């Protein structure tokens, strides 16, 4: 949806005639373009050639604009700069983000919305106005048309699907405005630095890649309805003319069976008709996660030659901590952050200097945790944290080999290891992956900072996702997540309210030296599906996030890992062997059924008891039952 000066004046021209119960006639063919774009947006309709009337939604937005002008909330469109975008996909994203965040737009988008008359003050806080909500309501209800001419097809074919810098979007004629009118592309908040094809736009582009552009119109509503008719009623339901059109465009074969282009267009139809957009999901691993995953893979490779080697936690530690620091400087920040958490950020510079002085990472831990051999416990805690993280993202699986607890790579884990081998060990930030997956929505484009992160990690190339970008975007939807939180992540989660909160607000909850740590915690929380960080930098708790936050309200913040994937496996097993008492909000488990629960988890007895203790300390279970907090965890993953 796009309304610039020419579109606004066109709407007001038609509104004036509408008051006289007549239609508006465009005087010159050269002046048709804005009216045609408004027609694609379902704001006006063509009565006769060159003659237009307002639709219900067009009348609504025209009267809304008139009211705003009369109340001096915005200048008359006559005075607008021709390039001023009163409404565009970026403006609608700003409004949508504010609506999701208790109507508060935040500093990133506030000024842009004010320019458009969409902000008011309430009790000293700037919030979006009723006019902004009315515009958004019109957008959500005015179904756009979908018509792709042969010329537009050629433009779509050569245009990178994004995310990409706006400068890469070919500025040929009015094609960008036409695409935005039909919601096939979206621009970034707040100043359209980045564009991307939307979920519908990507489906249209994929269809254009396989159809035969032999007619003047290659995609239209009539063409889609004809194709759907085949699916519902069979090829015999089509007229000869319909069969000829579908065949000429390579949508069907001679017998009326759908070809690849036809199957692709059916997908377009479902997205367009039903607004079947994918939710935004993302994925995150940091440098240490990547190194631990690589170590598990390397140890298994060595196991083929030396069966005495197995990827136990002790062997992983042996591999990880005997490495010279100078060769593994990329691990410094992660190890440093773990020590900062324990000792406080006042030790930050001291720790930096220590890394420059010593030879191995193990020596750093020894220098800070020497007493009582505590350094070995801390090393184990750091590696265990990474192992829990990897298992929570379905990259490894805890198992047993020769009576030892070991870690196996899953299929997703093998794909990540392959990427790390080909493109180098690097962190894969949730915002970088989200730069790709956010485009699956109706009108969302990534912020410039997300896009730059994606480029830096080789997730986005020149104009489109790379093979690595596609891999991690696919993993965001295909992995089987299990809950996991570290001590610091829980502290961060506890400080996030349901809505009305921004990243900058969170920084104020901690000492300023913790900003980097907060960023890493937010990455993990978002990748686990507990929060959404919107384009206006608002932080929204998701439904699973609300449940996990409630579940761990009583967990001591001193716990290294207040919830782990293995704890969740135990909770699921106890649910299966126990009895749910809804009134008491408990799952009672008979002592005789604990052995069956152990068997269901696939854990050994020692690990089972250890994780059971974690669950008890976190107050997820009692002596013989899963309590309400544990039930909330199960609800967060859809078990109950």
Write a structural description.
It contains 30 helices and 17 strands. By secondary structure, it is mainly alpha-helical. Among the domains are: 127 residues, no CATH class; 137 residues, Arc Repressor Mutant, subunit A; 150 residues, no CATH class. The strands form seven sheets. Strands 1-3-2 form a three-stranded antiparallel beta sheet. Strands 7-9-8 form a three-stranded antiparallel beta sheet. A three-stranded antiparallel beta sheet has the order 15-16-17. Strand 8 and strand 9 form a beta hairpin. The chain is globular, with a radius of gyration of 29 Å.
Question: What can be said about the biggest beta sheet?
Answer: 3 strands, antiparallel
Count of strand segments: 17
Principal-axis shape: globular
How many whole angstroms does the radius of gyration measure?
Answer: 29 Å
The termini sit apart by 40 Å
Strand residue content: 5-15%
Give the fraction of residues assigned to helices: 40-55%
Nearest-integer average pLDDT = 93
């Amino acid at each position: 949806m796009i309304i610039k000066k020419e579109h606004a004046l066109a709407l007001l021209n038609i509104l004036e005639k509408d008051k006289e119960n007549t239609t508006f006639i465009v005087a010159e063919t050269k002046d048709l373009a804005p009216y045609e774009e408004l027609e694609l947006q379902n704001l006006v309709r063509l009565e006769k050639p060159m003659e237009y009337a307002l639709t219900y939604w067009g009348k609504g937005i025209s009267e809304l604009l008139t009211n705003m002008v009369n109340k001096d909330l915005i200048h008359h469109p006559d005075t607008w700069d021709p390039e001023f975008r009163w409404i565009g996909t970026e403006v609608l994203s700003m409004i949508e983000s504010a609506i999701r965040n208790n109507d508060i737009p935040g500093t990133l988008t506030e000024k842009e919305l004010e320019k458009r008359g969409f902000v008011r003050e309430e009790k000293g806080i700037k919030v979006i106005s009723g006019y902004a909500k009315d515009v958004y309501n019109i957008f959500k209800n005015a179904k756009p048309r979908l018509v792709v001419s042969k010329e537009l097809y050629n433009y779509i074919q050569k245009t990178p699907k994004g995310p990409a810098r706006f400068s890469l979007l070919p500025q040929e004629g009015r094609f960008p405005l036409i695409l935005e009118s039909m919601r096939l592309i979206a621009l970034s908040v707040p100043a359209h630095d980045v564009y991307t094809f939307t979920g519908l736009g990507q489906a249209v582009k994929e269809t254009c890649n396989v159809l035969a552009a032999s007619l003047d119109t290659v995609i239209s509503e009539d063409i889609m309805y004809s194709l759907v008719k085949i699916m519902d009623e069979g090829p015999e339901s089509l007229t000869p003319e319909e069969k000829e059109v579908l065949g000429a465009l390579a949508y069907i074969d001679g017998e009326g069976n759908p070809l690849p282009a036809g199957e692709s267009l059916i997908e377009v139809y479902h997205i367009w008709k039903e607004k079947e957009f994918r939710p935004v999901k993302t994925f995150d691993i940091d440098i240490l996660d990547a190194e631990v995953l690589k170590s598990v893979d390397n140890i298994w490779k060595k196991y083929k030659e030396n069966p005495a080697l197995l990827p136990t936690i002790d062997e992983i530690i042996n591999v990880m901590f005997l490495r010279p620091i100078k060769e593994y400087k990329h691990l410094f920040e992660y190890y440093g952050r773990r020590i900062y958490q324990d000792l406080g950020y006042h030790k930050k510079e001291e720790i930096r200097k220590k890394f420059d002085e010593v030879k191995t990472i193990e020596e750093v831990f020894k220098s800070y945790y020497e007493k009582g051999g505590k350094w070995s416990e801390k090393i184990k805690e750091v590696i265990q944290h990474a192992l829990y993280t990897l298992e929570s993202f379905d990259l490894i699986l805890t198992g047993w080999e020769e009576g030892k607890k070991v870690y196996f790579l899953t299929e997703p884990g093998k794909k990540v290891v392959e990427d790390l081998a080909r493109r180098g060990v690097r962190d894969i930030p949730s915002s970088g992956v989200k730069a790709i997956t956010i485009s699956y929505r109706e009108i969302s484009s990534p912020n410039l900072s997300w896009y730059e992160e994606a480029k830096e990690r080789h997730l986005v190339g020149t104009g489109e996702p790379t093979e690595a970008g596609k891999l991690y975007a696919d993993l965001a939807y295909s992995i089987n997540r299990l809950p996991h939180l570290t001590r610091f992540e829980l502290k961060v989660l506890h400080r996030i309210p349901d809505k009305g909160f921004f990243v900058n607000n969170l920084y104020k909850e901690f000492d300023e030296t913790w900003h980097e740590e907060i960023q890493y915690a937010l990455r993990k929380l978002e990748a686990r599906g507990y929060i959404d960080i919107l384009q206006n930098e608002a932080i929204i708790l998701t439904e699973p996030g609300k449940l996990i936050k409630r579940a761990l309200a009583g967990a001591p913040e001193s716990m290294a890992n207040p919830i782990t994937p293995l704890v969740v496996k135990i909770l699921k097993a106890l649910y299966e062997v126990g009895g749910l008492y809804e009134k008491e909000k408990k799952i009672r488990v008979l002592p005789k059924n604990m052995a069956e629960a152990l068997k269901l988890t696939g854990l050994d007895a020692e690990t089972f008891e250890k994780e059971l203790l974690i669950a008890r300390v976190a107050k997820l279970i009692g002596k013989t039952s899963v309590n309400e907090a544990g039930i909330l965890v199960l609800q967060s993953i859809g078990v109950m």
